[in-house]
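Appendix B. Chain record.
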Amino acid sequence: MTMSLKLTLLLALPALLASATAAHGQIYKCTTPSGSKELTNFKVGPHCELMDVPGGIPAPPRRVGPARGAQPAAAAEATPGAFPRVDSAEQKARDADRRAILEEELKAEMQKLSELRREFNGGEPERRGDERNYAKYQERVAGLRDSIGRSEKNVDALKREIANIR
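Structure tokens predicted for this chain:
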């Protein structure tokens, strides 16, 4: 490092530490196994010491979750007690509405797919008057092929969605 860079870092370090302390609470100076020093906002090992930085604020308490494998009592219940419940008749009506909407979308998508396939004409669509350049024709054919692929995926997805309705 050059002398001016070292001086700049040395002068900027107190401001950096003060802003880091204000933002994160505590600053630790840790020594890595290779011997280098690191500054961090959490203790990463036994070779870390808390730095005393003026103007710092206390770190917020760390949240500790439940131990792995342990299930809290609230997890056993599928929904919280205050969660609104829907009776089975209402849910069946909602499912029927959803099915009707999805079937309508499926019908429209299948109609779109059949029109695209008809226009694609087995890979040799009819050339248009504005396609004197063969590259434009090939571009349109590639676009049709892509549109057919997307439409087929949409049809499959809609069929899966309809099959998942209870």
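Further analysis of this model is presented in Appendix C.
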